[in-house]
Specification:
By secondary structure, the chain is an alpha/beta fold. The chain contains 14 helices and nine strands. The protein folds into two domains: 161 residues, Rossmann fold (3-Layer(aba) Sandwich); 121 residues, N-(1-d-carboxylethyl)-l-norvaline Dehydrogenase, domain 2 (Orthogonal Bundle).
């Protein structure tokens, strides 16, 4: 298929690469032109000078940028992707954003007879680079079935959750759950260190039981070593948690643990950890002890 990919960050760059490897004709756009040039040099395809130019003649336009405002800036306006898209094409947004902006864009797409899916991803940079992302999707069944075979190039799981906005809401659930699990793991390892246990041996044992989690398997060593210069940045996690907390105020759900962990991430930022991996919640505990 002829597709476009807008946003070549740590996630979008490899995701677009898997589309090219799968044989699709890919045109990319990135606000930093040099990054787009580097992508073309590595994978072939072409690049557009604007999102609208990249989207011209594309059957599917994928997007993966930072937040609601970034999304609007590359989708709307005379140079935005919608300006270059044709009726019958599909806009598939992989940005982790609000459910409100998903519904807003879906309505604008509908006016132009363009399909829309909100499709945030989970799996982090490693998941993107290895083509094993999990994709939570909101939209209609027909559009989902049209796009899913293409998404499968970089996903191990892509599921339709419900109507437009459901993908973003599911991603909020994902981040809520992760926040609590990472805090629990950080406290467990902090406690094990204070108790003079062999932390690695403890993790080896308890990871075979009910305490097991992806975070335990993949982040315990970072906590033991206090090395966090990698992974999913605290700044981005706080952005995601802010979206979830705002949504909770609208649907009147209670997220006391999420709100508390969000504050803890604020403390990590204050000790210089804005770009550290989310496992740096443990660094906050070690810093407090000192």
């Amino acid at each position: 298929m002829k597709v476009a990919f807008i946003g070549l960050g740590v996630m979008g760059f490899p995701m677009a690469g898997f589309l090219a490897k799968a044989g699709h004709d890919v045109t990319v756009y990135n606000r930093t032109t040099q990054t787009a040039k580097r992508w073309v040099a590595q994978y072939g395809g072409s690049r557009g000078a604007t999102p609208a130019q990249a989207a011209q003649q594309a059957e599917i336009v994928f997007c993966c940028v930072g937040n609601d405002d970034d999304l609007r800036s590359v989708i709307l306006g005379d140079t935005g992707a919608l300006a270059g898209m044709n009726a019958g094409s599909v806009l598939c947004d992989h940005t982790t954003a609000s459910a409100d902006v998903a519904r807003e864009l879906a309505t604008l797409c509908q006016h132009k007879s363009i399909g829309f899916l909100d499709a945030p991803v989970s799996g982090g940079q490693a998941g993107a680079e290895n083509g094993v992302l999990t994709v939570m999707i909101g939209g209609d069944q027909q559009t989902f079935e049209q796009v899913k075979p293409v998404i499968d190039a970089y996903a191990r799981c892509a599921e339709l959750i419900g109507e437009v906005g459901s993908g973003q809401l599911a991603k909020m659930v994902n981040q809520i759950c992760i926040a609590g699990v990472v805090q629990g793991l950080a406290e467990g390892i902090h406690f094990a260190k204070a108790a003079n246990l062999d932390v690695a041996k403890v993790i080896e044992v308890i990871s075979k039981g009910a305490a097991q989690s992806w975070q335990m398997e993949n982040r315990y060593q970072a906590m033991i070593d206090n090395q966090y210069e990698f992974g999913f940045a605290v700044d981005w996690m706080r952005k995601d948690l802010a979206i979830a907390l705002n949504e909770s105020r609208q649907n009147q759900s209670m997220l006391p643990l999420t709100a508390l962990v969000d504050q803890f991430y604020g403390e990590v930022q204050n000790i210089g950890g804005s770009r550290w991996d989310t496992s740096s919640l443990h660094a906050r505990l070690e810093n407090t002890k000192k």
